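Posting this for the archive.
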Amino acid sequence: MKYAIVRLLLALVFVVPAFIAELCVPRFVRSLGPMASASLSALAACVLGGAAYAAYVRLIERRPLVEFGRRGALRELAAGLLIGAALFGTTIAVLAALGAYRIQGTRDLSVLIVPLAMAIGPGVIEEIMFRGVIFRITESSLGTLLALMISALLFGLVHLVNPRATLLGAVSIIFEAGVMLAGAYLVTRRLWLPIGIHVGWNFTQGGVFSVPVSGLSSRGLFDGTLSGPEWLSGGIFGAEASVVAVFVSVALAGGLLKLAAQRGHFIAPRWRRGSDAAAVVAATAR
């Protein structure tokens, strides 16, 4: 299909219902308890989100679903999980060294189940929506850099609807997640790596260190608390709004974008491509 805006709108028609389902499922099954509601929400994100994106790609774009290709999937997903966990672990270590985070006790391992499920749901559906749909399709017309700015801005703004959202938190998300996760997608042109980083980051902050995840409170393995000025601790939004998290994530984003550029995964805007436009657009699906 020639026009990116038409493909973008059609993709959103397919994927947005799954995005809404992931958000709404916990409200409808709240009576089942936090473990069941979080697990069903994650299941909705994986099954409905994956099916909706696959249907769009095969019916509208009429190509193989390379973004979720099986070969190397486990390796990329595992790498992402480790990177996300290490990234937030580094952030919390710096905050602890500066006196902005303190562990007061520990909890039973069973508390890990709910935050894990809560990390998987958004990690899957948000990567499908923002990297698989918005970034990829916008990039096919406007090029990598403009698509990166647009998708990162939208990703930050959507977090303003979260409970206890702050402007500082939304701006921080633009740089530390919007740019960094798009960079992760660019490196492989697949969704496994950014999904892994997203899930690993969210699970580590909420499931391990009990830090609010984008304003949502969480009970993790370590009973820890943040303190200090908002620019350092992140305030009620959590450590994602901390200047430390932004610095650490932007550093990784820079490395990912450099690697993607070295692999030739950046593309120019449509108006600068000339006769090679078709071949370059095809690169956004590799």
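The chain has ten helices and two strands. The longest strand covers residues 101-106.
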